[in-house]
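Q: Give me the 3D complex with LZUJQKHR.
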Amino acid sequence: MAGRIPVVVNGATGKMGREIIKAVSQSPDMNLIGALAKNPKYLGEDIGEVIGCGALEVPVTNEYESMMAMLSQEKELGVVVDVTHPDAVYNNVRSAIAYGVRPVVGTTGLSAGQIQELAEFADKASTGCLIVPNFSIGVVLMQQAAIQASQYFDHVEIIELHHNQKADAPSGTAVQTAQMLAELGKTYNEPLVHETEKITGARGAQAEEGIRIHSIRLPGLVAHQEIIFGAAGQIYTLRHDATDRTCYMPGVLLSIRKVISLKSLVYGLEKII
Ligand SMILES: NC(=O)C1=CN([C@@H]2O[C@H](COP(=O)(O)OP(=O)(O)OC[C@H]3O[C@@H](n4cnc5c(N)ncnc54)[C@H](OP(=O)(O)O)[C@@H]3O)[C@@H](O)[C@H]2O)C=CC1
Ligand SMILES: O=C(O)C1=N[C@H](C(=O)O)C[C@H](O)C1
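A: Here is the predicted complex, encoded as structure tokens.
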């Protein structure tokens, strides 16, 4: 369909992938042309039927390279949305860029070194790539509030709480939040006493500049984060709760629309809104 952004969703049968298939297929400026999944159970089936929204005439496939080749042949610049697994995402993104396809990466768990390598790769290819640890506007607002608060508070810890099918810890959102606070050029949480962990990990993971991250995994949770600031006589808590994955869809669609005009890798939704 002329003028529409051709989109392939990788991880199409997963929790995020299913929502993205619905959102993309209902967007008048996008054309869902591919649905990639790992599970052989769905191969060849119509992705619309698999996710229960009616036929979309897009069969599920696991042939990543062929999909990238097909996207690269489209008249309009093609986008692949990656919501797969931390073990797969790096190679997926490299391969997409090599085909001139624009990746929108929701998958978390990439290391800082891997992101740097992908940025160099995207730069050399002059190809846009968006890595978005969290697509929800609420998280962007929470992070902005945290940046403001950090001017006045020298002590902060992050608690992230997720469903217990999550592969990576800490969450990409928590890692990004800690980075944002660390980049402000101060060190947090100067200890008043010598601390001993009687059980390893009791004080959480140590991120940059003394910031601690605590990860909780339980059935019943979706995706939640608290940023807790402390000072003499007061506690300031910022909290975001994703209660349903539909909260990510406006950010996913915006990212698809924006990535086609980028010429390099951009990290974070806050950079494009
Ligand atoms: N940026 C954001 O705002 C958000 C990011 N996420 C991130 O998105 C990713 C996916 O999350 P979620 O949908 O909950 O996870 P799911 O496990 O529900 O879905 C992952 C999908 O990817 C497939 N998959 C798994 N391993 C591979 C692989 N090696 N190669 C290709 N496909 C693979 C799975 O297939 P199969 O079932 O066959 O294994 C499944 O379809 C995670 O990294 C998560 O942190 C999640 C929510 C919001
Ligand atoms: O796995 C999830 O569910 C989520 N992953 C992302 C992360 O690691 O930050 C975004 C959100 O927290 C949901």
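A quick observation: Helices lie at 15-25, 47-51, 64-73, 86-98, 112-125, 137-149, 172-182, 249-259.
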